[in-house]
Specification:
The protein contains 8 helices and 9 strands. It is an alpha+beta fold and 228 residues long. This is Nucleotidyltransferase family protein.
């Protein structure tokens, strides 16, 4: 967890729950003040409130966990403009106990067709309880590497920047390869990420390698040593 002491949704990439990241508020158009039909209302504060409540529940119950997804990016210094859900990583063996804790707080828990997460709703916002990231089970070591950070006002463990980036990049595939959603995340946390670790773990994957090359060409990260 820390150094302790530190949507079912159709046509969705498997285990990419934390990938739906809206980084910047769309530019406002001149003219009459009205919301374009295809743009959602800003739900950032409601998502933060949901994250705080679920995080507080998990803390009180003593469940090992780490905040993930777009709210984790915000906690690490990224954009506060959130347009999706809140995501939490828990150990696979703890999934049933975590679900019981959430139900005891009066929140419904849903089991979607995907077998790597549970879902609940808090403050009208979706919350995903994830026990597998990018095809790999959440591990105790991953949770132990989490950073304890304030999330709007509540301290909670947040997935480390390296694990966060690694999980996002590893989720790329022929069916899901949205570099545009992850690029702002990489920019926001680049100085906090062990990029050699990221390369070592997922640099041999074609889509991940292409994204790392893009980051180098955009001068987001340094070129790998020994490469031009």
């Amino acid at each position: 967890m820390t150094h302790n002491g530190e949507e079912a949704v159709p046509v969705r990439s498997p285990e990419a729950s934390g990938l739906r990241l809206a980084m910047d508020r769309p530019d406002q158009q001149a003219g009459p003040a009205r919301e374009p039909a295809d743009l959602p209302h800003d739900r950032s504060q409601a998502i933060l409130e949901a994250a705080k409540q679920i995080g507080a529940l998990l803390k009180r119950a003593g469940h090992p966990f780490a905040l993930a997804g777009s709210v984790a990016v915000y906690a690490h210094g990224g954009s506060r403009y959130l347009q999706h859900d809140a995501d939490f990583c828990v150990l696979p063996d703890d999934a049933d106990a975590v679900a019981a804790t959430i139900r005891e707080a009066g929140l419904a828990v849903l089991t979607p067709p995907e077998d790597w997460l549970l879902k609940t709703t808090c403050h009208g916002q979706n919350v995903d309880i994830i026990f597998s990231l990018a095809h790999q089970p959440v591990t105790r070591e991953m949770l132990d590497r989490a950073h304890v950070l304030p999330v709007d006002s509540v301290l909670m463990p947040v997935l480390s920047p390296t694990d966060l980036i690694r999980s996002l990049i590893s989720a790329f595939s022929e069916h899901y390869c949205d570099f545009g959603s992850v690029l702002p995340v990489a920019r926001a946390v680049r100085e906090k990420v062990d990029w050699e670790e990221v390369r070592a773990v997922c640099g041999d994957q074609p889509m991940a390698a292409a994204f790392l090359f893009l980051l180098e060409r955009l001068n987001v990260i340094d070129a790998q040593e020994g490469q031009p």
